[in-house]
């Protein structure tokens, strides 16, 4: 087992307020003054990370993600618990902090690398790499105030990642610069990870989570709500967001034998009764389908309460969790109105399997409008799983079968 | 304490380039550049000299030299300037750098050190300019001027200790900053800088006796104008107070450190 780089044990941080500032001052000198109010921003957080592991912290605003990052970075002191770091931490909590607008890019590198504790000799060594990575060319020796915000971000990112740290802490900055630079910075982080840097980051982009992380911690009200592999936690989080809007909270998850994770949430005013994938011609249920086969997906919903509108949405995902396709009956203008208790609604989705070989899943959602935030009747992630095999088409790779034909002429 | 100093030493490059940044920010894109550092205080002294000496006819007792009053004024104001510069900047430095403090982990004591450094450089530039002006008045340097570094040391220790202490309080209660603004005004006028010590009425002398800035400013005035060595017996009290404040501010800083960022 590789060595532990970051060890966080029972960490908690409370922000206290006192009756007056005088009592606060007195407490510094050992007088027994009780704070009047304590607010725990994070509490009972424990995890350990090994070299080369990547952990994402997700959660709603105010869940304590940034506080936790600041505790690990060391700008905030934890009230209880222990944080042990084995190696050098580099934190990118905000890009461009500590830059002086009157300095040139080069001088700012010296300034902000100094802020990271590097000596001038060390900076002399890494400055060519920074100049190269930031791609500022002639702007590198011009004052920062003439930079565009994207250029500033590029410089800041280059500085922050100039030396490979043992732990890299990133707070939602992967969205800097143009998409070219985003890719470049993402690659840089991935490179670090391969070289053994432990990565800890906060993001709201679930695709970043899936692309980079081995592990995700979901924080809610300062506590760990869920800690596990990305698909499990992300699906749980999505279900949770839906349920936040719908007062009756109920999220169930179970890992099925084939490895797909089933997440069910909703208030069940309308519920999923059955979901069957059938061959269109034979009307028989199938679990393995051929590329190019005509299929019908039949969903029966039972109505448990009088509801004004019912919308069915589908998401088709591949094995890695990427959404291959998705739409809903709101977009197709086929909303069903005024349903009464006891009604049953049948939905048929007819389609040709133009998918590449592999395992796929359908996630149906019974909702009342365009999004699942308004009324989430029932949402089941990965409710139906099926395999696609290629029997009669030429070999191809990828998740889509394009029915493409080569035309070759030789002259 | 030792760790704090080691950390500061490790971050010396940051302190150095930040001081350069502070100075540069103040003169950025102005034609006269560094000259503004000294033009401001000199202009202020000139105004006081003109108004008080020429218009109101203020004169220093026992000296008949026409240049004596401006020299007196400039010496005192240089000393006071150093004091108020360090104090005012230390007072606000944590608030000013709040986002950096919140997001980057570095020895926080760097900040007042940056203030101290840039104030010292300012002050030395000003002193050099003053020397030029003095030469213009025909007032040549004397051996007593070598006592000025002692004045700089005592004044900046005093200002630093007080500034850091109040700066920490200011993070928690912003009123401190407002109050100090007023207090500094009053303090300036209670210290014999624009007027000579001798004209203070007898029944108010006690105010000057307890005012620690009086002997400190006096070092400058004695050395630069009267060519006298300071009366060292008046200096031990300010020295002790300055040292204790300085030490106390370190202790306070260590105690308050963890909570400082919480409330920023």
UniProtKB/TrEMBL annotation, chain A:
<dbReference type="InterPro" id="IPR003593">
    <property type="entry name" value="AAA+_ATPase"/>
</dbReference>
<dbReference type="Pfam" id="PF14524">
    <property type="entry name" value="Wzt_C"/>
</dbReference>
<dbReference type="InterPro" id="IPR027417">
    <property type="entry name" value="P-loop_NTPase"/>
</dbReference>
<protein>
    <submittedName>
        <fullName>Teichoic acids export ATP-binding protein TagH</fullName>
    </submittedName>
</protein>
<dbReference type="InterPro" id="IPR050683">
    <property type="entry name" value="Bact_Polysacc_Export_ATP-bd"/>
</dbReference>
<dbReference type="GO" id="GO:0016887">
    <property type="term" value="F:ATP hydrolysis activity"/>
</dbReference>
<dbReference type="InterPro" id="IPR017871">
    <property type="entry name" value="ABC_transporter-like_CS"/>
</dbReference>
<keyword id="KW-0813">Transport</keyword>
<dbReference type="Pfam" id="PF00005">
    <property type="entry name" value="ABC_tran"/>
</dbReference>
<dbReference type="InterPro" id="IPR029439">
    <property type="entry name" value="Wzt_C"/>
</dbReference>
<comment type="similarity">
    <text>Belongs to the ABC transporter superfamily.</text>
</comment>
<keyword id="KW-0547">Nucleotide-binding</keyword>
<dbReference type="GO" id="GO:0140359">
    <property type="term" value="F:ABC-type transporter activity"/>
</dbReference>
<feature type="domain" description="ABC transporter">
    <location>
        <begin position="6"/>
        <end position="246"/>
    </location>
</feature>
<dbReference type="GO" id="GO:0016020">
    <property type="term" value="C:membrane"/>
</dbReference>
<dbReference type="GO" id="GO:0005524">
    <property type="term" value="F:ATP binding"/>
</dbReference>
<dbReference type="InterPro" id="IPR015860">
    <property type="entry name" value="ABC_transpr_TagH-like"/>
</dbReference>
<dbReference type="InterPro" id="IPR003439">
    <property type="entry name" value="ABC_transporter-like_ATP-bd"/>
</dbReference>
<keyword id="KW-0067">ATP-binding</keyword>
Automatic annotation (TrEMBL), chain B:
<keyword id="KW-1133">Transmembrane helix</keyword>
<keyword id="KW-0812">Transmembrane</keyword>
<comment type="similarity">
    <text>Belongs to the ABC-2 integral membrane protein family.</text>
</comment>
<feature type="transmembrane region" description="Helical">
    <location>
        <begin position="109"/>
        <end position="137"/>
    </location>
</feature>
<dbReference type="InterPro" id="IPR047817">
    <property type="entry name" value="ABC2_TM_bact-type"/>
</dbReference>
<feature type="transmembrane region" description="Helical">
    <location>
        <begin position="143"/>
        <end position="172"/>
    </location>
</feature>
<keyword id="KW-0472">Membrane</keyword>
<feature type="domain" description="ABC transmembrane type-2">
    <location>
        <begin position="32"/>
        <end position="256"/>
    </location>
</feature>
<protein>
    <recommendedName>
        <fullName>Transport permease protein</fullName>
    </recommendedName>
</protein>
<dbReference type="InterPro" id="IPR013525">
    <property type="entry name" value="ABC2_TM"/>
</dbReference>
<keyword id="KW-0813">Transport</keyword>
<feature type="transmembrane region" description="Helical">
    <location>
        <begin position="69"/>
        <end position="88"/>
    </location>
</feature>
<dbReference type="GO" id="GO:0015920">
    <property type="term" value="P:lipopolysaccharide transport"/>
</dbReference>
<feature type="transmembrane region" description="Helical">
    <location>
        <begin position="179"/>
        <end position="197"/>
    </location>
</feature>
<dbReference type="Pfam" id="PF01061">
    <property type="entry name" value="ABC2_membrane"/>
</dbReference>
<feature type="transmembrane region" description="Helical">
    <location>
        <begin position="235"/>
        <end position="253"/>
    </location>
</feature>
<dbReference type="GO" id="GO:0140359">
    <property type="term" value="F:ABC-type transporter activity"/>
</dbReference>
<keyword id="KW-1003">Cell membrane</keyword>
<dbReference type="GO" id="GO:0005886">
    <property type="term" value="C:plasma membrane"/>
</dbReference>
